[in-house]
Amino acid sequence: MSRTPDRNVPGSDVGPAIVAIPTYNERDNIETTVQAALTGCPGIDVLIVDDSSPDGTGDLADALAAAHERVHVLHRPEKQGLGAAYLAAFAWAAERGYRIVVEMDADGSHDPADLPRLLAAVEDGAEVSLGSRYIPGGSVENWALHRLALSRCAGIYTRAMLGLKVQDVTAGYRAYRLDALQKLELETVNSVGYCFQIDLTWRAVKAGFTIREVPIVFTERRAGASKMNGAITVEALWNVTRWGVAHRARQLRRLFSRGTIGG
């Protein structure tokens, strides 16, 4: 049985925080990532969300939970995508009284030393804090040129279509206030891959949330294979396009209704 959190993040008044780490075939990375998170921010708990990894990641996660009272594991019956894993983590955390949930990759690309700054941004009043690669002080290390170009182009296209000012719209290292998350109609989210991050950013902007970007250095994974594939890219392109078209259509309707166009 999972315990109810009984402590706050040191120096914070925002309540207990948990770091959600989705895994699928991350046996070579998960132990190092979890240990670094626990050391880098002693006030947080960790939730490993494993989608029945065939490489035994789930068994290793159970061993980590047995060794550390701050580590918990949520086993899911099959691989269902990043979005579903995070939604399950959000629900798990909310049921147990956590007030902040942090998204973190299992592969070592997100530096746990940045956790205190992400949490501090929420403490300072943001509903969402993003670990941003694309603002001053942020950067990407050891990525192939085509991966960096794809990420930057995706960001430019998304910001143009949706009118967003957020620089790193696909950022996967982020912290949310759970009470704010619950206002985003999460039951209607069906984004599967990395488009999930764009989806929640877009919803947060429309909800009027304060979003703070915190510069981070993103480093290519330590081991294992990236989960990025063509289907994930197509999903993001399709969703952003249809959201953008609907957004621009609403803007035009408002202009016509005010008599700004054609008056």
TrEMBL record:
What is a GO molecular function of this protein? dolichyl-phosphate beta-D-mannosyltransferase activity
- What keywords were assigned to this record? Glycosyltransferase, Transferase
Do you know which Pfam families this protein is assigned to? Glycos_transf_2 (PF00535)
Q: What is this protein called?
A: Dolichol-phosphate mannosyltransferase
> What is the protein's species of origin?
Glycomyces sambucus
The record's listing under CDD domains reads:
DPM1_like (cd06442)
Q: Which family does it belong to?
A: Belongs to the glycosyltransferase 2 family.
Domain (Glycosyltransferase 2-like): residue spans on this chain: 19-184
Top-rank taxon, per record: Bacteria
Q: Does the keyword Glycosyltransferase apply?
A: yes
| GO BP terms, alphabetized | glycolipid biosynthetic process
Q: Which SUPFAM superfamilies match?
A: Nucleotide-diphospho-sugar transferases
Listed under GO cellular component are: membrane
Alphabetized InterPro entries for the sequence: DPM1-like, Glyco_trans_2-like, Nucleotide-diphossugar_trans
